[in-house]
């Protein structure tokens, strides 16, 4: 019987102890561990992976190298752990990776993880869907989404904007155009749960000047809307 398998593991927002128990167990079982260097640390892998596991950090590995690992898993009967940032359901290329596993008729399993927006909400001590007297909806999007951000703002929902980079000016313009008031609360989260964590709150009309902080690099998450209101939890 073959043991060849690819585990697509939600790696959480960065802290080594924010993997699920299931993900940590799968990682500890893997012959080969593949992970993205942008947000996952070598320490996280070292803490959970087998001492003799083959480590494939990406970069320097390329996507083609990763797919060659899947070929080897099939041909050499290997267990591969492919770590995906946060939760595999959110901007994580999971669909593409699953297609690659299916094309090789490899057994695979997806393990959920703690998404960055959940980690940011915890750092802010807020609940994202129980804003008092207002919308209880949460929209997850990114500046590259084909739908204009202003259309989402028209719903009055709280919005989590992934991969916000330093695009504060664009975001501010779009959200104001959609009808959010200038004083709407925003939060900028960067490297949440990791060394160098930055969580900054500001008004929407301050977003363009706040999202340029030198403490932030391209991997920022912006939360905006009623769930961040000052009086949250005091009703
Ligand atoms: C390609 S997406 C991956 C999202 C991931 N699947 C998740 O569920 O969090 C990368 C974006 O996630 C956000 N992100 C991931 N980890 C983060 C963290 N620790 N702190 C703040 N934002 C983070 C940033 O917006 C970053 O640009």
Verbal overview:
This protein has about 240 residues and is of the alpha/beta class. It has two domains: about 5-110, 3-Layer(aba) Sandwich (Cobalt-precorrin-4 Transmethylase, domain 1), CATH 3.40.1010; about 115-230, Methyltransferase, Cobalt-precorrin-4 Transmethylase, Domain 2, CATH 3.30.950. It is about 30% helix and about 20% strand. A five-stranded parallel sheet has the order 3-2-4-1-5, with helices on both faces. Strands 6-7-10-8-9 form a five-stranded mixed sheet. The longest helix has 14 residues, at about 65-75. Bound molecules: S-adenosylmethionine. S-adenosylmethionine binds near residues 162, 163 and 194.
Give a short overview.
This protein has 8 helices and 10 strands. With 235 residues, it is α/β, with parallel strands linked by helices. The chain folds into 2 domains: 107 residues, Tetrapyrrole methylase, N-terminal domain (Cobalt-precorrin-4 Transmethylase, domain 1, 3-Layer(aba) Sandwich); 113 residues, Methyltransferase, Cobalt-precorrin-4 Transmethylase, Domain 2 (2-Layer Sandwich), CATH 3.30.950.10.
């Amino acid at each position: 019987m073959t043991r060849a398998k690819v585990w697509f593991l939600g790696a959480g927002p960065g802290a080594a102890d924010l993997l699920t128990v299931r993900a940590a167990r799968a990682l500890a079982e893997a012959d080969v561990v593949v992970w993205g260097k942008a947000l996952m640390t070598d320490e996280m892998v070292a803490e959970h992976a087998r001492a003799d596991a083959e480590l494939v950090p990406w970069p320097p590995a390329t996507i083609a190298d990763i797919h060659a690992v899947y070929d080897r898993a099939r041909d050499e009967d290997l267990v591969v752990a492919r770590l995906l940032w946060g939760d595999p359901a959110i901007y994580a290329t999971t669909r593409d990776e699953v297609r690659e596993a299916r094309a090789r008729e490899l057994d695979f399993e997806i393990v959920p993880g703690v998404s960055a927006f959940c980690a940011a909400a915890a750092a802010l001590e807020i609940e994202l869907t129980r804003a008092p007297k207002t919308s209880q909806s949460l929209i997850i999007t990114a500046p590259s989404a084909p739908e204009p951000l202003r259309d989402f703002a028209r719903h009055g929902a709280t919005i989590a904007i992934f991969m916000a980079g330093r695009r504060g000016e664009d975001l501010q313009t779009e959200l104001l155009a959609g009808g959010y008031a200038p004083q709407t609360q925003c939060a900028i989260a960067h490297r949440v749960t990791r060394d160098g964590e930055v969580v900054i709150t500001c008004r929407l009309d301050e977003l363009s000047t706040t999202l340029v902080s030198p403490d932030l690099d391209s991997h920022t998450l912006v939360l905006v809307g009623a769930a961040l209101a000052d009086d949250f939890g005091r009703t």
